[in-house]
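Anyone opening a protein record will find just a pair of labelled lines. The record below illustrates this layout.
***
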Amino acid sequence: MAGLRASLAWRAGMLCERGFRGMTNQPTEDKARSAIALILRYGSLASTLVMALGLLLILVRGPRGVPGGDLPILPRMLFARLAHFDPLAITESGILLLLLTPIFRSIVAAVSFGRERNYRYVLISLGVLAVIFGSIVFAMK
């Protein structure tokens, strides 16, 4: 009888262990990881290309070719200056893209953790997002 109990306990333990291993939704995790990797890869690539374009325009036009070369460019003026193809505005928009990359990464991570019902990591991702936004607000003052 004791051997039967031990055998049943061992089998129950194996089933539980398999169940916990099976709880990780591998395709969803792989999709989330690849989405986050794509955001980081292409976000940094896009920002680098935009900054390089701005620097190239500064080199081609020369220092006199930079209209209103005052720094920093205020956020409300950025889009107006981008419409005039201002090299400094283009360079700053590349920097802005680089700064937005971790924000998009945190949003995608929070959503993917939410789909996996891993609420602890959703809260951690939202906490990281709150720290990023708090830093932005603090820096703008």
In short: The longest helix spans residues 26-61. The chain has a mean pLDDT of 77.
